[in-house]
Amino acid sequence: MPYEQKTKPTDASVAAYIDSLPTIKRQEEARTLVQLFERATGEQAVLWGPSIIGFGEYSYTYASGHSGTAARTGFSPRKAAISLYLFLYDGALDGHLARLGKHKASKGCVYVNKLADIDLTVLEEAVRESMRLLEKWQGDEQPK
Q1: Is residue 33 part of a domain?
Q2: Which of 48, 119, 123, 136 has the fewest CB atoms in 10 Å of its CB?
Q3: Domain tally for the chain?
Q4: Is 55:35 a contact under the CB 8 Å cutoff?
Q5: Does 6 map to a domain?
Q6: Which residues does residue 55 pair with via DSSP β-bridges, in sequence order?
Q7: Backbone phi, then psi, for 27, in 5-degree steps?
Q8: Is position 101 within any domain?
Q9: Confidence check: pLDDT of 64 > 90
Q10: How many angstroms separate the CA atoms of 4 and 113, rounded?
Q11: Sequence-ordered list of residues with C-beta below 8 angstroms from that of 4, at least 6 positions apart, any chain
Q12: Does 89 reside within a domain?
């Protein structure tokens, strides 16, 4: 049976999803991030799966042959931390992350506990650079 991608764009309302978040603070932070990401990407917010707010999309194919579509960038306002989905391969945004403020980073995700912990101007720069790098990467060999 072929692989079916679980996280895909939906027709669900981003505003309704944000309104359903458990705290007023997380709702406010999500609204702030929607504005920041829309400004930085020029894309409208779309709910991917049940909890990722994505901006733009791209197609990928790994060396294994696995392929799919993903949001170019986005975030998920989770209870414990906000997950920011950026292009982090090969230290691409290390300079931005060094100036971002309090965060944790993994292979493709930056985690912040609250927006007050980070510099939103640096985040907006990082989102723009992430979009630029992903656009360039689309024509090159894709990371593993």
Answers
A1: yes
A2: 136
A3: 1
A4: no
A5: no
A6: 45, 73
A7: -60, -45
A8: yes
A9: no
A10: 32
A11: none
A12: yes
Structure-block tokens of residue 3 = 């692989």
Say how far residue 17 (Cα) sits from the centre of its chain: 16
Backbone angles phi, psi at 47, to 5 degrees: -80, 120
Tell me the CA distances in angstroms from 142 to 6, 24, 94, 130, 131, one per residue in order: 21, 39, 19, 15, 15
CB 66 within 8 A of CB 3: yes
Per-residue model confidence as pLDDT tens digits over 35-57: 999 999 999 999 999 999 999 99
Which residues make beta-bridge pairs with 60?
A: 68
**For residue 110, what are the β-bridge partners?**
84, 105
The token duo for 107 is 């292979």
Q: Match 């392929």 to its residue by tokens.
A: 67
What's phi and psi for 135, nearest 5 deg?
-60, -45
Query: Which residues have a Cβ under 8 Å from the Cβ of 47 and sit 6 or more positions away?
Result: 9, 10, 12, 13, 14, 17, 53, 54
Does the reported pTM lie above 0.85?
A: yes
Q: What is the DSSP letter of 33?
A: H
Q: Domain of 133: which CATH number?
A: 3.90.1150.200
- Report the chain's terminal Cα–Cα distance, integer Å: 23
